[in-house]
Amino acid sequence: MFGMIKNSLFGNTEETEYKLLSSETKDGISYEVRRYDAAKYAAIPSEGRSFDQVTGELVRKLLMYFGGSNEPGEVMGVVSPITITVYPRDDGVLSRRLVVGVRIPTAYQQGPPPPTDSAIRIEERPGMTVYALQFGGFAGESEYRAEALRLTRTLGETAPFQRKQYLCCSFDPPIKPYGRRNEVWFLQEEP
User: Fold this and answer.
1) Where do the DSSP E strands lie in the chain?
2) Which of 16, 114, 129, 144 would you label with 41, given CA atoms 20 to 30 Å apart?
3) Looking at the DSSP assignment, which residues form a beta bridge with residue 24?
4) Is the pLDDT of residue 37 over 60?
């Protein structure tokens, strides 16, 4: 437990690297198009509970894994952002299925420590190109949905992005009171 607290308050935070493909502004709304390489993530899926009911619990489990609750007891440091893959219905409301994930730090990509919590799985995620919209404040389901709607309207109906899922991203620890960074990522359809 101390490892998780130390890790999230004082530990090294590595930010997931990406290649900026473009910065766009349309109707006063700015977004970026970025390319992320394939990487291993620690992830926990959930079904049956809402975004706001379950995300805090799952994030804590992942922070404990990175803070030393793994087979060798290795304190790894945290990589931002925390990503939450959501699956919206046609009306924009989020289904009760999501996956919370955190990228494994670069130093552990080749051999991540096995988790002691059976809910956590290590998965290889493919490279992805995303449309990223940044916003501030404390974000829950309603804030992410509102920003996803803004990005959808900004990109328009013909933009090549996946409409069956998107990622809600948080870059800051929950105790940071101001200057918070959140993003919505739409996955660009690969040709």
Assistant:
1) 13-15, 19-26, 29-36, 39-47, 78-80, 82-88, 94-103, 121-125, 128-135, 166-170, 182-187
2) 144
3) 31
4) yes
Question: Over the stretch 114-155, which tens digit does the pLDDT of each residue have?
Answer: 999 999 999 999 999 999 999 999 999 999 999 999 999 999
Q: What is the pLDDT of residues 155-170, one digit of tens each?
A: 998 899 999 999 999 9
Q: Is residue 64 a contact partner of residue 1, using CB atoms and an 8 Å limit?
A: yes
Token pair 């992942």 is found at 62
The two structure tokens encoding residue 136: 């501030």
Distances (CA, A) of 41 to 29, 35, 97, 129: 30, 17, 18, 17
* CA gap 57, 59 in Å, rounded: 6
User: CA 189 to CA 55: how far, in whole Å?
Assistant: 27
d(CA 126, CA 137): 30
Q: The whole model's pTM is what?
A: 0.90
Query: Structure tokens of 25?
Result: 């502004």
pLDDT (tens digit per residue) in 168-190: 999 988 788 888 999 999 999 97
Tokens of 48: 């049956």
Name 117's Cβ contacts closer than 8 Å, sequence gap at least 6: 61, 64, 65, 69
